[in-house]
From TrEMBL:
The lineage of its organism: Bacteria, Pseudomonadati, Pseudomonadota, Gammaproteobacteria, Chromatiales. K(+) binds at residue 124. Pfam families: Pan_kinase (PF03309). It catalyses: (R)-pantothenate + ATP = (R)-4'-phosphopantothenate + ADP + H(+). Its EC number is 2.7.1.33. GO terms for biological process: coenzyme A biosynthetic process. The gene is coaX. ATP binds at residues 8-15, 127. NCBIfam families: baf. Keywords: ATP-binding, Coenzyme A biosynthesis, Cytoplasm, Kinase, Metal-binding, Nucleotide-binding, Potassium, Transferase. The keyword Hydrolase does not apply. Its cofactor is K(+); NH4(+). It is found in: Cytoplasm. GO terms for molecular function: ATP binding; metal ion binding; pantothenate kinase activity. This is Type III pantothenate kinase.
Length: 255
């Protein structure tokens, strides 16, 4: 079976989806390196043969060049490198320098605009957390970037004299030991920072907007927060598909 291979190269993971006509997308996640890509090739082989590849990457041109080489070795087409553009796919970025707007943020906004009517607030909770607002006409209001939960944990261990690097686990609130206090503080710091920024972004968009949530730590925000979110775990890859295929339907829901 032929299909489209979508790649989302983040700071810590390489997520992928293989979309074949009339079939539910096959998805996976590997490490963003040569060994991980080799595993990806083996996994994709079980789904079909890519006749087109799209790459959304925050890892720079050198990594994109590596992906091109790995695709060539696998016998796959040269990847389409997703980049922000002005108004081409239903979103008009606010950035004067489009090259400085992350491809992941752009793809996520394109997907959110395609999937929801009206204004949207797009939240991606990964290594870094980004929040972007887009009005009902597709105009990007701007955005916010902040450290993700793991970066908070790293900062406390590397930027202080004796605090340990706490590992993720369920903890009580309020905490009664230092490690649990670090985990609780970083988790709730993420959750309520995202909520506060989302509420303020909704105000910027006129008081009503759909808050769309994605990213590896989205589960923490959903579990501990009070705001209502539309959860779309493959949002960036959905955006890559819409950019590649134009106005075609969403294979995750309606194709």
């Amino acid at each position: 079976m032929n299909g489209k291979l979508l790649l989302d190269a983040g700071n810590s993971r390489l997520k992928w989806a293989f979309v074949g006509a009339g079939h539910e997308p096959v998805t996976g996640c590997v490490q963003p390196d040569a060994r991980g890509f080799g595993e990806l090739v083996r996994q994709v082989a079980n789904a079909g043969t890519p006749d087109a590849v799209a790459l959304v990457s925050v890892r720079g041109e050198q990594f994109a060049d590596q992906v091109s080489g790995w695709c060539a070795e696998a016998g796959w087409p040269e990847p389409l490198r997703v980049r922000a553009s002005s108004g081409t796919h239903g979103v008009r970025p606010a950035y004067a320098n489009l090259d400085s707007l992350g491809a992941d943020r752009y793809a996520a906004m394109v997907a959110a605009r395609r999937l929801f009517s009206g204004p949207v607030v797009v939240v991606d909770c990964g290594t870094a957390v980004t929040v972007d607002g887009v009005d009902e006409a597709g105009a990007h209001a701007g955005g916010v970037i902040m450290p993700g939960r793991d970066l908070m944990l790293d900062a406390l261990s590397t930027g202080t004299a004796v605090l340990p690097r706490a590992e993720d686990r369920e903890v009580d609130f309020p905490a009664v030991n230092t490690v649990d206090a670090i985990v609780s503080g970083s988790t709730l710091g993420l959750v309520y920072a995202v909520e506060g920024i989302c509420r303020r972004m909704v105000e910027c968009l006129g008081g009503q907007a759909e808050c769309v949530l994605t990213g590896g730590n989205a589960g923490l925000v959903r579990a501990h927060g009070t705001l209502s979110y539309a959860w779309r775990p493959w949002l960036v890859l959905q955006g890559a598909y819409f950019i590649m295929e134009g106005e075609s339907c969403d294979p995750w829901h309606s194709c």
